[in-house]
Amino acid sequence: MRRAAVLVLVFFSSLLGVAQITIIGKNLLNGTPLTSGKLFVYADGKLTHTLSTNKLPEFMLKLDFGKCYKVYIQHPSSPLAHFEVIGNSIPSDKYMYRMTYEFQVNLADKWDEDIDTNVFKNAFHRIIFNGYNQMVADTTYNLEFSKHILKKQNPGVLSGTSLENNILVGKIISPDFPSLNLFPVQIECLSANQQILRTLSSDRLGLFAFRCKKNSDIVSIRMTLRDSSLSGKTLSILNSKDELLFEGRVNNNLCIWNLGAKSSEPLIDNTYEAHVGGKIVIASPKEKRFYSEREVYLLNKRFTVIDKTTTNLIGTFVFNEIQPDNTYYIALNKADLARGEMADMLNKDDKFVGRLDTLIGDKFVYKISSRYPVSYNRILVSENELHMDVKATIFGDNVNNPIGHLKIILLNDAYEPIDSVITDDFGSFKFKYLPFLKRFYLDADNSHNMLDVFRNILIYSNDNHLIKVMTHQKGKKFSYKPMSTEILNMREVEIEDPWLKLIEEKQNHSVEIDFVENRLIVENIHFENNKSDLSEQDKETLNKIILVLTTQKNLRIEIGAHTDSKGGEEENLKLSQQRAKVVCAYILSYGVEANRLVAKGYGESKPLVPCNAPYVCSESDHAKNRRIEFKILNNTKIK
Question: Which among 27, 101, 224, 427 is placed 20 to 30 Å from 78, CA to CA?
Fold first, then answer.
């Protein structure tokens, strides 16, 4: 394709006389080739020539040394954008070189609500001389520009919506049965004359969220239950801050909350965002493997990348800025999959969600909708199922002055100290494996006035992006209250997983570490009644444990199998022993040493949910009791 483009366009080289700089580009829109583009080349403010790519996405330009060029690209689907070629910094003794620069031109969708088209008044890409014999990308400029393409969200302003719109958020709970699993359920928002204004479903956490007009006509909310088990009971609606707002009573499988004089106003929270996450496993006819330490993307409905993250060792990822009533795509690079490989997405409990098998541009994608269909509910993650790392680097006045050996204190939104660390010799600090916080603050101990030699304090992210410049007052304590966008640059979020913590403990120690003996980890391995077969989901969970055992060579575990109380006590004991042996055999088949595993069956002796009279267990209660528990044994080195 490129050779064809060169043959078609080589005619235009004669328009520029003796050409020394060759620019070869390929126009893309969200990874998809974009044809029928027009190029306008300016030098010293004057139009030198125009070019049309016709039915090809590729173009080629030949430019003289000694000039600076602005090349504008025009296409109906994209805002007018231009790149710069700085050719006047090349010394004449380098003119014997014919310098070629090739790049992919990633244009923006002009109709995309998340794109700030105003930034394209500046060059989106700059090409410079490297001082030797090549034209290269000005990475500093290009990276800085890329940070401004997406609009920055402000509280109360919704992307792609009118300022008259708000986010309404509520959470339904049962005060008498806080652990009752009655969600998702259907919810209807009603007007004063009982007209249905909006129908939606709650998520698996009992929470509902949607966009509504500022002057909402909603005066009541009606919920339909699946059964009559809560008949006569009280159900409550909380706001996003868990404050009790409304109460209603269940009658004939319905619960109605009258919102009162203020209508829906107490439920409005324009800073609300949800979290989605899961695990990606690569499957081929020969094997399965975790999609470890690879990039995963969040795309909007126009396939623009609005966020990206890197999976951890067991292939998990989290995205934290999911708004209601939106369509998103989870995506990975096509180039990361070999021929015959497929990418499966699992949720936090290792249940299959879907396959990333739709090719959009250069990415495989999987569609989700935050209107709470089944696929969205499966990957929805609550805040108490997350943990976070906070990391940054501190400099005084400039990057030549890293501030080492400084005590940094992390505080929550109530200004309560959570943890503290000391910066290293390079001014870097990291808080590890903390409970997730939407907001946090940083203080620094300036008791010895070590900060007073600096006028400004600079905060940088670990990928060397400047986050904040703060003026320091002598004799004052350093205190930093980061804004939401600044928090995103310092915070890394992961799904809570006790096995992952064991892996990270090993990575942070150069010697063998002590494990907490008798630490108990309950995994989502629930056998069917009277069976000992492993499902594909069970095997995914065990694969994670195998990875931990492979990483932690001095780790020993007990595999404890438990049954429900159906059947006889002796038969249940034998069944649990068989289940423990099946799990043990699967782990051993991957090369884990036998003396590191202990398989033990407990029968029905240790139920999670007691099923003795007068309490009668439901089938879901029995399923919880049919489980596998992994106990960390002593850390005596394996011989």
Answer: 101
- Note the CATH number of domain 386-488: 2.60.40
User: Which residues share a beta bridge with 491?
Assistant: 390
- Numbered ranges of CATH 3.30.1330.60 in the chain: 498-632
pLDDT in tens, 215-224: 678 999 999 8
Summarised one tens digit per residue, pLDDT across range 404-461 is 999 999 999 889 999 999 999 999 999 988 999 989 999 988 877 888 899 999 999 8
Q: Which CATH class is domain 165-267?
A: mainly beta
Contact indicator for 526, 626 with CB cutoff of 8 Å: yes
Phi, psi of 347 (to 5 degrees): -90, -175
Least trusted range by pLDDT, from 99-103, 114-118, 155-159, 347-351: 155-159
> What would you report as the CA-atom Rg of the chain, rounded to the nearest whole angstrom?
30
- pLDDT digits over 473-507, tens only? 887 788 999 988 889 889 999 998 888 777 665 55
**pTM of this prediction exceeds 0.90:** no
Largest CA distance in the chain: 96
Cα 603 from Cα 585, distance rounded (Å):
19
CATH 2.60.60 maps onto the chain at 165-267
Q: In the chain, how many H helices and how many E strands?
A: 8, 42
Reported as type and span, the H/E element at residue 293 is none
Q: Please compute, for residue 491, the number of CA atoms within 13 A of its CA located in the half-sphere on the CB side.
A: 25
Give the DSSP letter of residue 580. H
Q: State which amino acid sits at residue 636.
A: T
- For domain 275-381, the CATH architecture is Sandwich (2.60)
Sign of CA dihedral 329, 335, 336, 341: positive
Quick one: which of 482, 466, 474, 475 has its CA closest to 410?
482
- At 28 the three-state DSSP class reads strand
User: Between 3.30.70.3270, 2.60.40.10, 1.20.1250.20, 3.20.14.10, what CATH number should domain 2-146 receive?
Assistant: 2.60.40.10
Q: Compute CA 444 distance to the chain's CA centroid, rounded to the nearest angstrom.
A: 29
* Residue 462 token pair: 């670990």
**Residue 141 backbone phi and psi in degrees, to 5:** -65, -45
